[in-house]
Design brief:
By secondary structure, this protein is mostly helical. Helices cover 59% and strands 0% of the residues. It has one domain (3-159). Helix 1 runs antiparallel to helix 2 (27-46) and helix 1 packs antiparallel against helix 4 (81-90). 30% of the residues are buried.
Length: 193
């Protein structure tokens, strides 16, 4: 499968995700988003490549319209998922940066979202042969990024509280490493009977 065919497949599957999972008070907006993704999918392999582009200009224009719609309206999905769909052609997956929460509970939520995203990527779910697996991965990534964006607003507000100003971000203890306690010296200065 070529990179543009992979992009077309992901966009088509993402259209299914939007149609089935996106939430919006006006169903017509969900339908519009789904149609834009289908249009981008169809043109990714059929429209001509111009000026050394890796995706057709028309496809990129349609994707920009889909991104604008996703950023203007709340669908319960992040527009970051579009970058996962086009990554085979345009390179680079979107990241999920640490929110630098000072509170442990918010930091742990951040770490959890990052770990779940990392697991989807590292296990190769976006490149699976099964459409169902790729669809599930795209849907999960759309929601994970959405939750991360919402959490970002909460962390910003929490970090700005007077009691949290100037505090260093909470860092999770390194995985698997537990601090060792020093054992008292044995046999020195103690009587044994």
């Amino acid at each position: 499968m070529t990179t543009t065919e992979t992009v077309a497949r992901r966009l088509s599957l993402l259209s299914d995700v939007a149609s089935g999972s996106a939430r919006h008070p006006q169903r017509s907006q969900v339908d519009r988003l789904s149609e834009l993704l289908l249009m981008a999918s169809a043109t990714a392999t059929s429209a001509p490549l111009e000026d050394g582009r890796r995706l057709p200009a028309f496809t990129l224009d349609v994707l920009q319209e889909a991104q604008d719609l996703m950023e203007a309206e709340d669908f319960g999905m992040s527009a970051a998922v579009l970058d996962y769909a086009v990554a085979p052609a345009l390179g680079g997956l979107p990241d999920m940066k640490s929110l630098n929460a000072v509170g442990e509970q918010l930091a742990r939520q951040d770490f959890d979202l990052q770990a779940r995203r990392r697991a989807l990527i590292e296990h190769g779910h976006l490149d699976a042969g099964s459409d169902a697996v790729v669809t599930a991965a795209l849907g999960a990534l759309a929601v994970l990024h959405y939750k991360h964006e919402r959490l970002s607003a909460v962390v910003t507000a929490d970090n700005a509280r007077p009691s949290n100003r100037g505090k260093a971000p909470y860092h999770s203890p390194s995985s698997g490493a537990t601090p060792r306690r020093r054992r008292p010296p044995q046999g020195r200065g103690t009587a044994t009977s």
